[in-house]
Amino acid sequence: MSVVAARRDAQRDRWIPRLARLALAIVLVVGTFGLAFAAMRRDTGVILGALAVSAILIVFSLLGILIAGRKHNPVGLIFSALAVAAAIQLTADDYILRANVTDPGSLPLVVYAEWVDRWIGAAALALLPLLFLLFPTGRIPSVRWRWVFRAWAISACFWLAGFMLTPGPLDVGNSDHAMNPFGVSFGSVLGFVGGVGLLLTALASIASLFVRWRHGTGEERQQLRLLVFVAGVGFVCFWLSGVPGPISGVGWAGFQVSLLIGIPAAIAIAILKYRLYDVDLVIRKTVVFGVLAAFITAAYVAVVVGLGSIFTDTLVLRIAATALVAVAFQPVRDRANRLANRLVYGDRATPYEVLARFGERVGETYASEDVLPRIARVIAEGTAAARSDVWLRLGDRLTLAASWPVAEPRASFAIEGDELPPIDADRVAAVRHQGELLGAIAVTKPASEPLAAGEAELLDRLAEQAGLVLANARLTADLEARLMQIAQQAADLRSSRQRIVAAQDEERRRLERNIHDGAQQHLVALAVKLRLAKTVLPKDPEHGRRMLEEIRGEVDAALDTLRSLALGIYPPLLEAQGIAAAVAAQYLRSGLPVRMEADGIGRYPIELEAAVYFCTLEALQNAAKYAHASAITIAFHERDGALEFSVVDDGVGFDPDSQGAGSGIQGIRDRIAVFGGDAEIASSPGAGTTVVGRIPVHESVRI
């Protein structure tokens, strides 16, 4: 958002509550005139009715101030505008009634009152599409609906201009049929165009309300559901009212019921039942203040006025009234709070009912992913918190397991000892079971409503009841983690076995090639030369003896080939002298620049020694093939209950992250994993390569 746009939004946010307060002032001033006209009629029923209507309009105005002030929501201005329009129309009706009926000629400018009365109701009706378009957020559903707002604004202007400027008599209630003082010839045309436009924009705004409901989630759908239904029914009834025949009367009646009862009721349910615009807090405080004001007034009147006829000392009576109020204020305040909580929050106002239902609601499910969110929701509803969190201890960390409303990502804190870490919340209650810390429950209240003592006690009681639930949830989470770990280990074991089988098959093929290309070729050549020597020897003994000498050399070469082949399959030196001697024999034959460190290692089971031997040879062969090293160090050590081997070269190195560790290191890992060991590789370009393997050993496995 640009700086200019942000500044414009800030200015708009300041003007919205100011306009709402101005509307309340207008309602109060105009309503006062209306009450004065009602009082002039000297009819108790009329006066009481006027008082009731005035109270309703003031409530509407206060609701508009609440919505506009707390959320900077233009919907609040719509409520305020409706209250202003109703106050003006009702006062204009009383003015016209007195000027034309009850006391004709007593009031001036009646024609202008009739003119205002003619169009003010239409102005209120024109706000209906805008209410559908903006409710409840105060913003249109998306950018593509801007054209509806613009079309509504233009249509509403034409519609009001039509009512204001249409010539002819001003046919309103109790009118003397005076002519419109501002009538022009094209006024009716403006009204017709505006009416059609308002009808179309009303249909579009109902569609936008339906789209908002379809795309909404959770509580927003509940807030909009009834209003969408009532708006749809009202539009259908309005359409039926234009059908010729008896159905038109039914349709018009249904439209009026939807307009005057259905829509206000749907909005009231959305605001009160689903706590839209945080109105519950205002209602609760209003009830408390009203009860306290009534108590103070009643106490003062009862003492000062009621006893004034008996005692003449009014100072004593005033002091007595003050003392009575001071003594009874706190008990009355507590009772007022309980009454307000009961009216606003229902069952949440009774902590014992929340405690009684806590176990029942939590016991409806056994899955940890269901039970913990249920706990969070019950706590949020029971304490009227803006947010509640359930923390679960897993190992040495405290993890956010569930929240209401749902929040991501899940935080985690380290735990030292058995104390809770600092958690950002208004109140945190530790959850323990049999003295063990299992987790915590945290609540955050709205900024304008601090946590009450009763709510804090309720949270502590809920934490006490949640101990067994969190214990089961932790056991379930641990079991799920173990199952996942076992499944991963099983998958790794299957993969390792497959790689071992493949390596064994490859080793057999390599052995077959070596026998075929090496020893077998030597033996075949020896057989051919022996047959040739047998043929040559009787004819030319000297030449035959030379051939036999050559054959003897080739026999020695064949034997060396077979010994090398046997040494690669399983070196006898390994079983006779151990790992260090067998590895030394190999690198001495290869001529590689190798240095070996093998201090302090003894003998181990031959299976373990064979695994270490072949893993070391694999790392040595990789270094000889790829490293181009000038020095290779092989080391064997026993440290911390494990046999450790390493092969370090100063070669070219490589990047394991980009190039991969290769099949060699995986084969090493698979081979020593049978004994519970593991291997790691560390390398970087130009810095050589280090392969390290560790196999756990115990005293019982040493030889």
Report what the structure shows.
The protein has 703 residues and is α+β, with helices and mostly antiparallel strands. The chain has 5 domains: 1-108, no CATH class; 280-345; 351-478, Beta-Lactamase; 490-567; 578-701, Heat Shock Protein 90, CATH 3.30.565. The chain has helices at 3-40, 44-71, 74-102, 110-134, 146-165, 187-215, 219-240, 247-272, 279-305, 314-345, 351-362, 368-383, 453-539, 541-569, 572-577, 579-590, 606-627, 656-659, 662-673, and strands at 387-394, 397-404, 412-414, 427-433, 436-444, 594-597, 632-639, 642-649, 678-683, 689-696. It has a 5-stranded antiparallel beta sheet with strand order 3-2-1-5-4. The longest helix has 87 residues, at 453-539. The mean pLDDT is 76.
